[in-house]
Amino acid sequence: MHSVAALIPIQRLVRQARLFPVVLLLIIFIAFTLPPGVRVLSNTSATHPDPSSASVHRTFWLNGTRLYGWNHTIPGPTMMVSSGDVVTIMLLSADGDVHNWYVDANQSATTSPIFYSTVVYVNFTFTPVIRGNFPMMPVYNETIFPRGGDWTYLCLYHLGTMYGTFRLLPAASFVYTPSSPLVEQSVSFDGSASKPSIGAGIASYSWDFGDGNRVMVSSPTITHTYSSVVRFTVSLTITDNVSNNDTTSRTVTVTSPGIDLNATPTSDTAPVNSQANSTIIVASNGTFTGAVDLSETSSPATGLACTFTPNSIVLGTKGNSTLSCSSSDAIDYSIAVLATSGTVGNVTSVIFSFQDFQIAASSPVQVNPGAPSTSTITITALNGFFGVVYLTDAVPSDVTCGAITPSSITGSGSATVSCTASQTGNYTLTVTGTAGTTHASSFVLKVVQRSGGSALSFTSMLEIGGLVAAVVAVVAVFLFLRRRRPKQ
Asked: Where are the alpha helices (DSSP H) in 264-388?
């Protein structure tokens, strides 16, 4: 009886084991017949259990489709994380196409492996960290973000449909009023739109007003008064109660009544070492009269040379001056134009863009005399350059070159030139590109006599022929003498 009783639980386990495959198949069927928005959780993550705790591991599930975006929404779901969180993204291709997940954090891009399976998820994990101005190198698996806020994630293979918002917290933000404050006028700053880390609160607001005054407060609002006419950079740094922080900056232009100041155009483009120009219009506001002096400051602060013609205007009503600037660097300059008369002044902005190109000619492989050799000429545009670069070459007297094809390139591109030389040696050729500015690049044509690689010269052929004839003659004499030897 005891043996029979002992068999009963075993039989029950056997029956349950037989049901296990059925239950498993039922679960798989339900999972793959639900619509993607139900089956894949689009913004699920662990909740922040304690504002004073360390980082949290947050997991997001994303289905990628070329036509319908992430999780069948365009744009895809918003992914919200805190600085220092461990972020895991489970990636699946809903259409069997090749995809990846990518976010560009300004110099520290993060890219998942490619994935194309419609069944097996790809597990991708990284840690986003806010470190303004990149003060240190990232540690393993960290992605450095210069600021908090909204960034765009996407699939590099399907940019038009597969994108969404990657929201990194904390994120500092502020506004100020009035938009064009005057000297000695109270300016109100409001950082209420700032966001702390998930589940945390903002502990402090640190303001740098750009005029040497700094203050840290617990309230998001504050007022400040400026005593001079200039453009100030105001920065707000928020720190939350999990010790994460973020900084944002805005420019505040302080003016004074009495002078109206405008620029036309407000932007200009020129080749490097050429002049970009803008007309500065200075007018009297109300009854103001007197001499107005013009000056400028630029960002970047170096590399730009500017002049005003004239640099001072005597106002009754209105006067104009031409601002001309040049630079040897292919970059953009933000220029603040200041008009001052004693304690009265105003400021306006101009952006000058200087463009250039680079040229590089490749040195081809060495060839035999008379054989053609081809060099590739590459033109690279700098800072949006889209001019026409005309190509010419300087060729040594012993070298013959065909035409450069094409003879001009717009913006960026490449051309080729084919050259030959009848004598061995190293020949230096120079290719020049001209488009307002001129740049040149040289390459070396190497011509060598390689064994077996070319036809023999006439002299060599005569020498070889004479040698062969001598050998034939010796053999013939030997045979003749052998025939004349008497038989034994």
From this structure: none
Closest CA to 165 of 179, 157, 154, 180: 154
User: What is 362-447's CATH number?
Assistant: 2.60.40.2310
CA distance 138 to 106: 13
Element holding 473 (H helix, E strand): helix 458-484
Q: CATH classification of 175-253 is 2.60.40.10, yes or no?
A: yes
Q: How far apart are CA 287 and CA 290, in angstroms?
A: 10
CA dihedral 448, 454, 460, 462 (to 10 degrees): -160
Please give the model's pTM, rounded to 2 decimal places.
0.46
Rg (CA), the chain: 38
C-alpha span between 66 and 449 (Å, rounded): 57
Domain ranges of the chain: 38-169, 175-253, 259-355, 362-447
Which of 217, 165, 210 has its CA nearest to residue 191? 217
Cα separation, 268 vs 70, in Å, equals 41
The CATH architecture of the domain made up of 259-355 is Sandwich (2.60)
And the tokens for 65? 């489709």
Per-residue pLDDT reduced to its tens digit, 252-306:
998 766 888 999 999 999 999 999 999 999 998 756 788 999 999 999 999 999 9
CA of residue 258 relative to chain centroid, distance: 44
CATH number assigned to the domain covering 38-169:
2.60.40.420
C-alpha pair distances (Å), 414 with each of 195, 340, 380, 419: 49, 50, 9, 17
Q: Which of 231, 225, 263 minimizes the C-alpha distance to 250?
A: 231
Q: d(Cα 72, Cα 481) in Å, to the nearest integer?
A: 101
pLDDT digits (tens, 9 = 90+) for 303-336: 999 999 999 999 877 899 999 999 999 999 999 9
For residues 258 and 274, is the Cβ–Cβ distance under 8 A?
Answer: no
Q: How far apart are CA 170 and CA 130, in angstroms?
A: 9
Q: Which residues of 47-56 are buried (b: 16+ CB within 10 A; e: fewer)?
A: ebeeeeeebb
> E strands, 112-194, where?
122-130, 142-145, 149-154, 163-169, 175-177, 186-190
Residue 430, strand partner residues: 394, 442
